[in-house]
Each structure stands twice: as C-alpha cells, then as structure tokens.
Amino acid sequence: MRAAMTRRQRSVDVVVVGAGPAGLAAARGLAGHGVGVVEVLEREAVAGGVPRHCHHRGFGRWGVTGPQYAARVVEAALGSGARVRTGVTATGWAGPLTLETTGPHGLERIAARAVVLATGARERPRSARLVPGTRPAGVLTTGELQQAVHLYGQRVGTRAVVVGAEPVGYAALSALRRAGVTVAALTTEEPRHQLGLAWAAAARLGHGVPVLTGATVAELLGGGRVSGVRLRHRDGRLTTVDCDTVVFTGDFVPDHELARRGGVALDPGTRGPAVDGAFRTGAEGVFAVGNVLHAVEPALWAAREGALAADAVRGFLDGSGPAAGGPAIEVAAPLRWVAPNRAVPQVPVEGFVLRTSEALTRPVLVVTQDGRRLHRQYVPRRALPHRTLRLAGRWTGKVDAAGGPVRITVSGLGGGIFGAAAK
Amino acid sequence: MTVTTKGPLSPRGQMSSRPYDVAVVGAGVVGAAIARELARHPHLRIALVEASGDVGDGTSKANTAILHTGFDAVPGSLESRLVGEGQRLLAAYAAESGIPVEPVGALLVAWDDAQLDALPGLLEKAGRNGYGAARIIDADETRAREPHLGPGALGALDVPGESIICPWTTTLAYATQAVRSGVDLHLNTRVETVSPEGGDHLLATSRGALRARFLVNAAGLNADVLDRLVLGRGDFTVTPRRGQLIVFDELARDLVRHILLPVPTALGKGVLVAPTVYGNVLLGPTAEDLDDKAATGTTADGLDGLLSKGRRILPALVDEEVTAVYAGLRAATEHDDYRIRCHEERRYVTVGGIRSTGLTASMAIAAYVAGLIAEADPGLDLKEPVEPAPVHMPNLGEAFPRPYQRADLIATDPAYGTIVCHCERVTRGEIRDALISTIPPASLEGLRRRTRARGGRCQGFYCGAAVRALHEGRGE
C-alpha cells in the first residue's frame, strides 16, 4: 500500500499496450478520429516493434525494409496526435481498465475508458522446446540474433545451425550472413521445408546452405560454448553438425502475460486472448490486436487489424457497437487454431487466419454450427504447417448467437478430389 | 578486497610473501560459508580457491532451492544435526542479508496405499529429528490446501516449516561477506597437486603456487580427487548423481501453494513440484548415478519422465511454458551421511558427501568445520570470532519489493525504472550494480544468477542483445 501511495494516478481515454505495427495503427485510428487522449505504452526504448530489427525487404510496396516501415508507422501514429511513450512497461492491472506502469520517471496508475492489448509474439526458445543437452552459450532465437546483428553490431560466431525452416528462418540466414557467419545447415522437423520454393532455392543456391528436412535436434553439445548439435533423422540415424552458434527460429507464441494477469480469457488454440471480429476480448473494454492474437502474421496484417480495431473501440466508446457475446469458434485436427475465435452475427469479419499441424493438399474447409453448415471453402493450394491459411469471413452473419460452438473442420480427409491428402 | 580471475597467484618476486593461514578449495555454497565463518577471525589470512570463473558455479547453482527442516534426515546423523542447526542459522542470516526466503511449507503427498502407509513412519522420524510441527492430513484437506492437484491424492504429511530460498544469492552473500572481510578469492584456479612443504600445504594450481598452513577441502564433486591428492588415499568416492529439472514460467505460480514433496518408499523416490522465490515452478529432479562429473546435460528420456510425473501431480502445470531445463550433479558418495573428517596431523579437513541438504546446512557445516580447525590447530587461535559487517544483497525474490516496484528507488536513480529484461523485470540499475559488485559476474550466466536477467520465458528473444551490450560495456 505504501508503494500505491507513491504511484502517480492518471486518466486517459485509451491506453494501447505495445508500439508495434498493430498498436500504432490502432492508436492512429483512434487519435486521428478525435478520440481524446490516446496513449501508447512501449516497454522498449524505441517504438516500432519487431520490424525495427527485420532488415529484409517485404514490408509493403517498393521493397520497404523493416526499419523503414517501423519508422513510418511511428511517424503516422505521432502525426495523428497519439502519445507514444517508450521505456514504459505495463506491469499489471489495478482494476478492469486500469494499468500499473514502471518507467524511468517513476510508477504510475493509468485509468482508461478502453485498453488495447498489442503485446505481440515471440519465438519459443530452446528450453520451451525441451531440447535436451547442455546449456552452452551461443544458442539464441531469431529475435535475439537480429537485434544483436542489426541493432548492436555484436559478434555472433563463426558457424551456425539454423533450426526451423519457416519463413523466419530465412530472416535468420540473412542476419547471419550480415554478421559474417557461415551457416552449416538449416534443419527442420517437417518432412518438407516451409520456405516456399523461391526461398529454399535462394538458401541452397544463393547461400550454399544445405536444407535438412525430417531432422530433429536430439541434443545440444558443448561446455561453455556450443560445439555442435546432434540431429536425429527420420530413419533414426544420428549425426552431429559442428557449430558455435545455434539459432532456433519460428515456433512463435503470443506474449500474453498482461492479458492473463488481467484475467482476459485465452483461446485454447492460439493461446492469445479470445476475440470476436471486433477484436473484443472477454473483458469489457479490453481489445486485442496483432500477433498476440495469432503468432504470427505479417506486419501489414497486424496493422490492418489495428486500424479495424480502432473503429471497434470507437464504437464501444460511443455506445454504438454491437452487443458482445457469441459462440466460440473451434477447430478440429489437423487444424490447430483460428483467429478471431468468437462469432458475433452482427460483426462482419474480413477474414480468418488459421494454422494446420500438417500439410494439406487443396483442402476444403467446412464451417458448421450445431450440425448446420454455414460455409464451405475450397483452398486451391497446399496448406503448410506454420504458414497462413485464410478463410473468408462472409458467413458470420449466419451464426446463431445463442447456439453452440461454431466448428471448422477439414472435409474429406484421406482422399477424394475435393479432399485433402495429408502429407 | 581481493578477487582475482587471471594471472599468476604469486607474482614473481613475491614468493616470500606470508603463506595463507587457511586455504579453502571450492567456492560453492559450503566453501563460501566456511570462508565466511573463518573470516570472523580477522588475524587469519584466508584464500578461497575456485576452479571455475564464478562462485557457486557447480552443484550449488543447480539444486532444488529448498530450506529444509531436516525432518526426514537419518536421526542421529551428522547431516540431521547440521541441517537442523543450519536451517535456523540460515533463516536468520537470510532475513538480515536480504536473501529471499518464502516459508511456504511442504506437503508430502501420498498417491497410493504404500505411500499413505509410509506417512506415520515419516511423522515419527520427524519427531526423532526434533521436528514437532508435522502432522498427517487427509485427502480432503490435502485437496483443499492444493486445489490443482491431480486426481488420486490420498493424504499428505504436512511439514509447515519447509521454505524456499534463493541458492544463488546465498552463495554470493557468503562469498561477498568473506571477501569484504579480507578473504582472497581466486577464481579460475584449479588445484593440480598438493604437497607438504615445511609443514605447510603447497598447492600447485593452474595459476601457479599457493601455500597454506591449513587446508579445507570443499571441492564438492571433486572432493574425493582432492582427498587423494592430499592424503594419497581417500575414504570415499563421489558418484555424481544427476538431477534434471524443468522450470515453468511465472504464469504457472498460482497453480501450487506448497512444496509438494514425494513420499519415499521402497519403490524409490518420486519428483517434487515446488514454487521458487523467483515466482517459477520447479519440477524434478531425476536421480541418475553417473561416472562423468561433467555430464550436466539433460536427456529426452529424463525430461519426458519428469513431464509424465508432473502431469500426475499437477496436470495444469505441463501446459504452461517452460523457461529452463537444466541438470545438476549431486555429490553422492557410498556413505549415507556427510563425510566431514579432520586429519589433525596433516592440518586438513575434508568436507565431502554434502548432498542437496548442504544449502540448508551450510552455515552449520561452516561452524562445525571451524570448530574442527580450532581444535586441530590451536596455533591459528580461533577462540574469539567477531561479527562481520552485514551484507545487503539485491533482492531477486517476488515476495519482497523489487526495484521496478519501488518509486523511492526510481526517484533516486531512473536506472531502476528502466526495465531491460522484460520477462523477469530486471532493470538497468540492477544489472549495473551487479557488474560493479564485490564479486562481479564473469559471464551472462553469472549475471543471470545475480539479477535474473535473461532468465525468463523468452530466454533473450527480447533482451538478450541489450543485456549482452550492458555486460560487455560493464554497465553503461
């Protein structure tokens, strides 16, 4: 309580937690439409989020790089009149719409009329993946690697193994190349790499990197510094690749700590806050956008959500938004998750994003509620694990708000021209 | 204050310097406690010699972090006595030095009839160890006390006196106080041979020679090796017993209220689930007898086994994120009890076979060893110890205010309001303080044990490069 008395109390209209593409787009959409005081809290020293250290191109048109994109979204938010406060961490909740913060200027308690969680996602490190072996130095994630190389100019090592061939693996390759590190191998547990043909060819041809598929990291070797990885191949064979650096890439999870500490219900599939198409969580006045909802989608998708969420927040503040509540949207294996994951008939949804746990060839997605079919969609391509699978949102108007959960299944698994042949 | 990390121990031209009165080999929790205890005699010249680059870098850094009551020790054993005394001494020392301790209590949960039948015997044993507060509780009370337990708990032995403690701060507090009281700490100093010379011990080390009148062996896993170097024979063999552990994220902390200990039966010992003072939940350890004293790796089988046992005890736990997997080696010997032997004629004490209870017993072991030395070598004059200047360690515990929560501290220095490691909420001020402390960390791992930086769920995804930059720039 003594600490409470030394917290500065403040009130604003909307607090946005996280100044990445989603949070900044939300702030811009709010402040730019005259929603009083909109304050973005960013715990890092610089706003812009993960794109700040993604030096590759592909952020928007004309070959915009991550840092260029980050600078633009920050500028746009500031230009709209939003306050962006860096170096300030939302450490917890003092009430349903009241956050506690720590920053170099002290402790605060900030009450708002609405809170937007845009806390993003991170890669799971070696420990969370339960990779056995020693705990040597030189083992990192892409996020740490990119910051070390692009923000701090630190030396990384001389010879690396990159684990996981999701698209982010390619970003790791590019950061390693910038740091002058030889890449001994790119390994993935999946039977096929997930890079896309062009990227895989670029890895092999452009960088001379062998791509090892169907290989699991069985053990990390080395005392003080990592000396190699032992790989288990699909046929049970064990091989050792010598290296002094191991980069674990992909396997993103939402950074949901603040949501959980606030009692915001999570979706069991995404492990991010459960939201409807208006980005409303189960806690009234608390919204969530960006990769905390779905780990991970590209920055432009996150920013689009931020802009859409700004409209929904305005609707909530002026009381014009639709009633909340509605059934959960569930997925059946091999689908892993869907976002948004609550269906409200009055809330239109531009599109859903899904993930599958195994490769599906031209799958048909079927949406049902209480045995009634709401939607059927043919996906005219191969759906890969860790890659975006999209589902149209036009069926949400058919949902019975008082009905049971909405289910998304893959139809005809196991054969048929409209079915999906797994693997 | 002398802490050396490289270069010859006795620079050329200074070979004639006065030999140390006592050299303690091994700066784990036991060696550091002994050095601290001996430093209470300011006239003594003391060396604390450590093979690694940091204190507490072996067995001491990887234990289960429990401050035991000693309720389940072998009654009448030296271990029973020293754990009981040590618990009281360390609890008081922790309170005065800022070492985080949480008196959460323990439940030994019985999952089958054999375990349930074993509880009365354990209760009686606790009594014989001088611990009277334990009692047996039924299934309903067990469930009420631990609502997230898996199905099938039949009852439990309630041991309210068990606590959790920070093992890293404990070792560091002892070593810091020892160094501030005049002990020379020599890191990266591996003892290679020991020979008698003019009544003293001449230690040949990886950093040159060191002479000492009295030698204390607190070499942990290598105590048997050092014993043979000194005596030419040894009376015990250390068999490293590997314990693999899984640390779950702080968001799992609310799932468990007590230390959940296994009930030992003839069929073996299970694993424990315990909160940590950092707000994590610990699951483990395995117990694997090995012959490699460097085998601190985890294995797929070990981790799978822990998860399946953990799922039975606390099903929701295994759905939470894992922040660390690690393995520690316990210095098990063929003997049931601690092996503390004084060889008076050689002016030598061996402190061997100190198992995981050694953290709890450390201060009592130190006092016991000091007593043995006083008796064996009256010339050292250990009659009147003085109280050392107290140390105030940075708080790493969640049960006490941490710098990021303290407006008063941030007002004096904004660095305490600048969070660098977000998962663990470690501020730039704390990292800077650690880097300029009495015993600064030699590595990022050492920095983690002093501050918790990089120790959380992201393991450096967000802060790794920033923490490294502070470490390499020594704070700024």
UniProtKB/TrEMBL annotation, chain B:
Matches recorded under SUPFAM superfamilies: FAD-linked reductases, C-terminal domain (SSF54373), FAD/NAD(P)-binding domain (SSF51905)
Annotated BFD-like [2Fe-2S]-binding domain residues: 419-470
Domain FAD dependent oxidoreductase per the UniProt entry, residue ranges: 21-370
InterPro entries: BFD-like_2Fe2S-bd_dom, BFD-like_2Fe2S-bd_dom_sf, FAD-dep_OxRdtase, FAD/NAD-bd_sf, G3P_Oxidase/Oxidoreductase
PANTHER family from the UniProt entry: GLYCEROL 3-PHOSPHATE OXIDASE, GLYCEROL-3-PHOSPHATE DEHYDROGENASE
Identification of the protein by name: FAD-dependent oxidoreductase
Source organism of the structure: Streptomyces sp. NBC_00119
